[in-house]
UniProtKB/TrEMBL annotation:
Keywords: Extracellular matrix, Glycoprotein, Secreted, Signal
Location relative to the cell: Secreted, Extracellular space, Extracellular matrix
Signal peptide annotation: 1-19
Pfam families per UniProt: CarboxypepD_reg, CILP, CILP_5th, CILP_8th, CILP_C, Ig_3, Mucin2_WxxW, TSP_1
Gene responsible for this protein: CILP2
Segments of skewed composition (Basic residues): 1215-1224
Secreted in keyword set: yes
PROSITE patterns associated with the record: IG_LIKE, TSP1
Region described as Disordered: spans on this chain: 1187-1224
Domain Ig-like as annotated: residue spans: 348-432
Organism for this UniProt entry: Apteryx mantelli
Biased segments, Basic and acidic residues type: 1187-1196
Gene3D superfamilies named among the record's database cross-references: Immunoglobulins (2.60.40.10), Thrombospondin type-1 (TSP1) repeat (2.20.100.10)
Protein name, as recorded: Cartilage intermediate layer protein 2
Length: 1224
């Protein structure tokens, strides 16, 4: 009955949504009382043809973003989409509203307005006398499978472009679906996908000359005689040639320089932001160009005697800016005015990278790349396996076309773009060329071991692992239609084509399991790639509320009230650069290069922002010195010296008043500041490679007028660095001054330093490094050294401390901070130099780090690992250092000096370790197998086997076990398989459900959830999976512990056609009896039949709720694009006993669904949990017998026999029937 009702609702909404309460022309009263503010029209989508659309629809979660204060309760769809991105489909077809007491509006007698296109509103002044609006929450009905025709494409060009001949034109449309699961099926729409019509270019006209073009400029501006040229083109030259010349040359009369004493040229030179640019050289274009003037402090210049005309063009040139050109045009008054706008030179930055491709021998492949910058790059170079390809042979530009492919052409291809400002290289793209008969996807699955339940042993040796097989998500060969395209069209990947159901003999029962039987090519699974996190102040943890988020120049959204954010990574992104801006200007803009998991899902990041230094008053007419250094008890790293008369308005006028100056210095001598540093401390070298920097400090400047608060610029200022703060002598000659490009996240060189000695006292001579710069558009600077001594560190993350290679974790963010040790104290870091973050893949991660081959302790590094905000644990280094556990063999381990953070003090955290980054000696066999690799051995590091040396992190999960009948690796979303018994039915959105169980007893107990199909006809009685969790002791309640137990959420299965209410059994280990059930949960289950019987007091059974209930019911539900992150958030809320909090300390008496009392029992007595493990069939028969006996004594509201599907009749009250309709 449920699916049919949903379908009827959907049809009603499509055909008559306005019949209920249309808001198309209605107005939305704002909170301020503006009653006539119109709703914005919802974006249109392709028309849905109900005759071809797939049936069925699904309700979203309940939303409640407003409270009925002020004018009423407003739950607008636009606001819901802002706070819950991606949770509501583009075109909802129905809406439902209830009060928070689960009552309908008509039941409480309130007047409301609602529409699936706009949302819901209840206005207080529209209510009956004495009533105000209740607090409502709403949900939307979304079609499950929109199968419909797209709009027709434009008509293609005529197949015969030559005149006098007829041809054909075509246009196409696609049968598309908005639901991912449909991508695994063949979509069928009624009608034709292609239309054709005749076309013709018409009769051929006769050839004729076009009009002459304008005369070009004279070859000389003045002086000796010159020439000029004009051209014309021949129209329709294909039929016959035109008679006559295509070009004419004319002499220009000689003119003296200057020849117009009464004419004056006035001009200004400004930047793209309108700021005056002094010192620009102004030329009269010619051969050679003649220098006319230089711009003054306000960017102005004046030239007398220059004649206007077509041959008179002036250009402006200034260091670090691209030249600009403008004509000299007279207005008849003897005065010409020009404005030359100079764009700051910006190094090129790659915006489109070549894509990896798989081709059959004989096919062709096209690679494309594109770079931006100022000026825009036009020179491109292509490389194959690092070797430059001959431009004359391949005739390439930004596109490289390879025809007639052979296996010898396989390998990596990358491009390089170059301008006068610099160069940039693209990421490499791999080309795989398959020989005749070679398959890109083998039908035989690869081995994939999963762990079985503890009561299941696979073989005579007692192995708990079973090979379920896997299909590697490799690309399949592209279609011929994609050969000339830059990107692949419908991408095809190796995936599961057939699965087999098997049974494993366990202690007293058979465990169902599905294994991969055959692999083949099919549509690629395309999970969403997200970066989520929270932005807070580095000093106080204050959240950045409603801060702006930019990707490049585009604003993509805001942070939430608690500083949370979600960024969807654009397709084919190689480097994600995000900028976070505080609109209240309390924090320095944070530019972050965010790691993400290219295989899909969400990666969590904590973003720290530097608080701006409180401004101080400076007298602009005097020289001012601002110290650069924030560590108490230590001398500043340097100082910023601003000479008198240096502050400028944007017009170039010298500012002479009081300046509010804020200079915020990030001091690397304080290791706690590493997380607040902007960018990833990288720059593009002359070859276009992105290489690392080592910082000695970075500073942000903000200068404003004291009265108007207008931003000020400066002319030349000095940055002085104390050479005594540079502990590595070789860095003195390499030190440079850099500024950050906020759009690319790369640092660009501003200037170099020179050494100078100065007296600071009678006997003190100090050496300073002095650099010069101007503060214009950019406001974040860095004191950095390009470092050539670079290596890679191999790190892997594991699901537990057994470190099995097949239990590695993907999607873990590994962070490495380079440290500079104090002389004589190698283990006592003095300062950090740079940091990097990498996301682990199927073979771990390789992190760049500074290293030294002569002094092992010259550089040290500090490593941490997080997964969804949870810190992973490092291997212990005391009391005994175990090389087998660390993952690195001796004697190299001794040289690396591995120490976990709690090595000397057990009160320190166990989630980080420190090493000396000693560059491996190629002549020492003990150092050639990792975990440190030379910088040029990145490929060797990335492809290193699990048996090679590496450092390890692991997840601390005590007595926790998960089993899925359909195997799925949560860290690899591409391993998802569409099956009715899949634990997660949708690979783009994962809904995690937990129930909180309180255990009253003297110890901690294992609690199992057994999850089987409950109401779906194809899964009823079949196992989805098992979850075992050990309860956690409550530190505040004596003899009490709590367990947050995962269960399979109710909802649509993978085909999105019917809802299944999962039958969940919660069984604690030991001699336990159920003593209490949450009253709200019990009432909810009674009001949403069918109801599962609970006669066995040693367990709790329910048909899982479809709605996300919350902590008041003891049920915790979180939806996210990353399953692990969804589970971590839900567990944190469950531990805390709230719907929006987070805790790792169990509060067993808060937000509990069910309570068991357990006690110690004689060894001879077997618990129900143990009976379920040893003989589940008998245990379940016992439950059925008790249920049958109880059924004779008392008729339940509605009881379902899950083995047969028989439903007993039961009487309902009118209110119950009303609630049943409401639920449907």
């Amino acid at each position: 009955m449920l699916p049919r009702t949903l379908a009827l609702l959907a049809l009603a909404a499509f055909h008559g949504a306005a019949a209920r309460d249309s808001l198309e022309n209605d107005s939305e009263p704002a909170k301020s009382g503006a009653l006539d503010k119109p709703w914005k029209a919802a974006p249109d989508v392709a028309d849905l043809d109900l005759a071809t659309a797939g049936g069925g629809a699904e309700w979203t979660s309940w939303f409640n973003i407003d409270h009925p204060g002020g004018d009423g309760d407003y739950e607008s769809l636009e606001a819901i989409r802002f706070y819950y991105r991606g949770r509501v489909c583009q075109r909802p077809v129905a809406i439902q509203a209830r009060t928070t007491e689960w009552e309908l509006p008509e039941e409480v007698g309130e007047i409301v307005h609602f529409s699936p296109k706009k949302g819901f509103r209840c206005v207080n002044k529209e209510q009956p006398q004495g009533k105000t609006c209740s607090n409502y929450h709403i949900r939307f009905l979304c079609p499950l499978e929109h199968i419909y025709w797209s709009h027709w494409s434009s008509w293609s060009p005529c197949s015969r472009s030559a005149c006098g001949r007829s041809g054909t034109q075509t246009r196409r449309r696609r049968c598309v679906s908005a639901h991912l699961a449909a991508a695994l099926k063949e979509l069928k729409c009624k009608g034709k996908a292609v239309e054709r019509r005749e076309c013709s270019a018409g009769p051929c006209p006769e050839a004729a000359w076009a009009e002459w073009g304008a005369w070009g400029p004279c070859s000389r501006s003045c002086g000796r005689a010159a020439k000029r040229l004009r051209r014309r083109s021949c129209k329709n030259a294909k039929t016959s040639p035109c008679v006559g010349r295509a070009a004419e040359v004319q002499k220009c009369p000689p003119s003296p320089c200057p020849a117009c004493p009464e004419h004056t040229l006035q001009g200004t030179v400004v930047s793209a932001t309108g700021a005056a640019l002094p010192g620009a050289r102004v030329f009269l274009e010619g051969r050679p160009p003649a220098l006319l003037a230089r711009s003054d402090a306000r960017g102005r210049f004046r030239v007398a005697g220059l004649c206007p005309g077509a041959a008179a063009n002036v250009s402006a040139h200034l260091e670090k800016f691209a030249p600009a050109l403008a004509p000299v045009v007279s207005n008849g008054s003897g005065l010409s005015v020009v404005r030359l706008v100079l764009q700051r030179l910006e190094k090129p930055y790659m915006v489109t990278h070549p894509e990896a491709k798989v081709r059959l021998a004989g096919q062709r492949a096209t690679f494309c790349c594109k770079a931006s910058g100022t000026p825009v790059p036009t020179k491109y170079y292509w490389y194959h396996n690092g070797t430059l390809l001959d431009r004359k042979v391949y005739k390439y530009g930004s596109r490289l076309a390879l025809r007639g492919l052979t296996p010898a052409q396989a390998g990596t291809y990358h491009c390089k773009a170059s301008t006068e400002a610099g160069a940039i290289q693209s990421a490499p793209a791999r080309l795989t060329v398959l020989a005749p008969g070679q398959q890109s996807c083998k039908s035989k699955p690869e081995p994939n071991l999963i762990k079985l339940p503890s009561e299941c042993r696979r073989d005579a040796v007692g192995s708990q692992y079973y090979d379920v097989g896997r299909c590697p998500p490799t690309r399949c060969a592209g279609s011929p239609a994609d050969e000339a395209q830059c990107g692949e069209g419908a991408r095809r990947c190796c995936g599961v084509r057939r699965m087999e159901a098997r049974e494993i003999q366990c202690s007293g029962y058979l465990l169902p399991i599905k294994v991969v039987a055959k692999c083949g090519c099919g549509p690629c699974t395309q999970p969403r790639i997200l970066v989520r996190g929270r932005v807070t102040a580095a000093d106080t943890g204050e959240p950045l509320r409603f801060g702006q988020i930019f990707l490049g120049k585009k604003k993509i959204g805001f942070t939430g009230y608690k500083g949370s954010f979600t960024i969807e990574v654009p397709p084919d992104t190689q480097r994600l650069v995000a900028r976070f801006v505080d609109r209240q200007q309390r924090f320095v803009d944070a530019v972050k290069v965010l790691p993400f998991n290219s295989r899909g899902g969400a990666v969590y990041q904590d973003i720290k922002m530097m608080r701006k230094k409180e401004p101080v008053d400076l007298d602009a007419s005097q020289t001012n010195t601002i110290p650069l250094g924030e560590v108490r008890g230590q001398e500043p790293v340097g100082e910023l010296v601003i000479p008198a008369g240096t502050f400028l308005r944007s017009s170039g006028e010298v500012f002479k008043g009081t300046v509010k100056a804020s200079v915020t210095f990030l001091d690397p001598r304080d290791i706690a500041t590493a997380g607040a540093a902007s960018s990833d401390l990288s720059f593009a070298n002359a070859e276009g490679e992105i290489v690392p920097l080592r910082t000695y400090g970075m500073f942000a400047v903000d200068f404003r007028e004291g009265e108007s608060n207008e931003a000020l610029q400066t002319g030349p200022v000095e940055v002085r660095m104390d050479a005594g703060q540079i502990r590595m002598p070789e860095h003195l000659q390499k030190m440079k001054l850099w500024s950050l490009n906020p759009e690319t996240g790369l640092w660009e060189e501003e200037g170099v330093f020179r050494q100078a000695k100065e007296k600071r006292g009678k006997r003190e001579d100090r050496t300073f490094l002095i650099g010069n710069m101007e503060i214009r558009e950019r406001r974040l600077f860095n004191l950095d050294v390009p470092e050539n001594r670079r290596c890679f560190v191999k790190v892997r993350a594991y699901s537990n401390e057994k470190f099995n290679p097949h239990e590695q974790l993907e999607g873990v963010v590994i962070s490495l901070i380079n440290l500079e040790p104090q002389p004589g104290y190698p283990t006592n870091p003095r300062a950090w130099g740079r940091f990097d973050s990498i996301v682990t893949g199927p073979n771990g991660a390789c992190l760049p780090a500074f290293c030294d081959g002569e002094r092992p302790d010259a550089y040290s590094a500090y490593l941490t690992a997080t997964l969804g905000g949870e810190e992973l644990e490092a291997v212990a280094s005391s009391p005994v250092l175990n090389p087998n556990a660390v993952g690195v063999s001796r004697p190299y381990l001794n040289k690396l000096g591995y120490r976990r953070l709690d090595h000397d003090d057990p009160d320190f955290k166990k989630t980080a370790f420190q090493i000396n980054v000693a560059k491996p000696d190629p002549n020492n066999i003990d150092e050639t197998n990792g975990p440190i690799y030379p910088y040029r051995s990145l490929k060797e590091c990335e492809e290193a086997p699990a048996s090679a040396n590496h450092f390890r992190f692991y997840r601390v999960e005590v007595d926790k076990y998960e089993y899925n009948v359909v195997p799925f690796k949560e860290s690899d979303l591409t391993s998802w398989t569409g099956d009715y018994l899949s634990w997660w039915p949708n690979p783009q959105e994962f809904r995690a459900c937990f129930i909180k169980v309180q255990i009253e007893g003297p110890q901690e107990y294992m609690v199992r959830s057994r999850n089987v199909g409950g109401s779906h006809p194809l899964t009823r009685g079949q196992l989805y999976g098992l979850r075992d969790t050990r309860s956690v002791r409550d530190l505040l309640l004596e003899s009490s512990s709590g367990a947050c137990v995962e269960f399979k959420c109710s909802g649509m299965l993978f085909d999105q056609s019917l809802v299944d209410r999962t039958l969940v059994s919660i069984i604690p280990q030991g001699s336990c009896r159920r003593t209490a059930v949450n009253s709200l949960l019990r009432e909810y289950l009674l009001r949403h039949p069918p109801v599962a019987e609970n006669n066995n007091t040693a367990a709790f059974t329910m048909l899982a709720p479809v709605d996300p209930l919350g902590h008041n019911y003891g049920i915790y539900t979180v939806t996210d694009q990353n399953p692990r992150l969804a589970k971590e958030i839900a567990i944190g809320r469950c531990f805390d006993g709230t719907s929006d909090g987070f805790s790792r300390e169990m509060k067993s008496g808060v937000g509990t669904a069910v309570t068991f009392t357990c006690q110690e029992r004689p060894v001879t007595q077997e618990s129900f949990f143990q009976r379920l493990l040893t003989a589940p069939a008998e245990a379940l028969d016992e439950i059925r017998r008790e249920m049958g006996a109880n059924e004779q004594r008392r008729a339940p509201p509605e009881v379902t026999d899950f083995s047969s599907g028989w439903r007993a009749p039961a009487q309902r009250s009118p209110g119950g029937r009303r609630r049943m309709r409401e639920q449907l």
